[in-house]
Amino acid sequence: MAAAGLLWGATVSAQDAGKYDQRWYVSPSIGGVFADKENLDNGVAGSVSVGRALGRYTGFELEGGYSSLTVSDLPAENDYERLTLGANLLQYFANDKAGIRPFVIGSINAHQIDFLGEELSGAGVGLGLGSMFQMSPWWDLRLQ
What we know:
The chain is mainly beta. It has a domain at 46-143: Porin, CATH 2.40.160.20. 10% of the residues lie in helices and 60% in strands. The chain is built from one helix and seven strands; from the N terminus they run H-E-E-E-E-E-E-E. The chain has a seven-stranded antiparallel beta sheet with strand order 1-2-3-4-5-6-7, with no helix packed on it. It starts with a helix and ends with a strand.
């Protein structure tokens, strides 16, 4: 029975080829960084993703981000800063016409951290969950 479901999915996919939403999109985000519950160290975080669908249930993005954290016990020149550049692959659980589209996101990135006068760089991977909520034909709200 499972094989029949997979075969049907492949047939639908072949018939609908080229009919999914192929527009490019820009997804800005803003957030906060919090650490050290005693001193309430905090900062800002933000990112911008540019992406598009690869099919009715998959998408690809390039993303850049920045975050900073003011550390209360240290002089300002020792604050924490992080830059990231990466790529994301999204797997949606509903097709591109659905009003609510939950997804799982996998990412790879390169990052540079400046903290305590040292610069460190490296690579990372991530896995997360989120959902897109269609607000209008031109706007979606993304929670991740």
